[in-house]
């Protein structure tokens, strides 16, 4: 059976609601209203079962304790709209980048750094765009921004950014490492100190040396497709992604191909597993499984892979259709409902939302069966966003917001 004690955070970023629920029974232990969380920056696991996220409307970084009495442990001001969120391996020092928000062109160059221990906050100007971010440790923490067009990894010292004077001054990087212009997807492995960035060429890898980075060999995708999302597996020392192939035209999304990509960081071996056509993006990692949601006009499903033997078992669980789901002839992004998926590396439960219906499917990954269906009093517009945490699950070993 799945491990006891997990808690589920569910956000409807449009409606402005955030719930904390027990799993699998769905008892609501806490709720926030008027909180419009950044779905793109996502949830960031912190030590002690805590979670960080950004309220895009109020311009606040929130530290949540789903296992405590008061859900909000701390709130500090940050620049918004939040694009990406990351922390150093200690969980003390955080960085928040800004993105497009509802604009169609890059316009914000603000970066916020926060020291949770002292509650110091500093804002600086870097470069407009949609930068990814990691906060490597191994000494005084760095802040590494992954830029596009032109692509680069820009290296800053966290202490320099925190000590910047008021007024959002420009902050020049201490070092630059070139990247292709199409970077999208970031990860950091605290054990080895490697920073990873997904591009069309593959996964670019760099290790920290002093206050800079040294490039290492690119990890190939091993497929004509590419990954747009990158995630560190804290239990298996591996990287995961979903490779999307086919015509780039979003109107042809039902024809997109999807493969689960797993790269073992110790052996250097890469595994590819066919997931099926349609829309597959983010993934979640449970104790023994990797979970993917696949949306398609012919039917949606939750796909579970054996994470310890990715060439082995695969289980598919059909999911009920969503009103307002992406349809043939339209794009899978604008004005449609989607699904979010969550899991904890210390548990066997999987949570999948049903956008527009206010429902969360709770699945036992060990049996591949739905164990409960939680119903909330908010629609979960666009699928909402979810995070599952169990006590001592080690999820903070992946210090990038998801």
Automatic annotation (TrEMBL):
Name the record gives this protein: PQQ-like domain-containing protein
Source organism (scientific name): Streptomyces radiopugnans
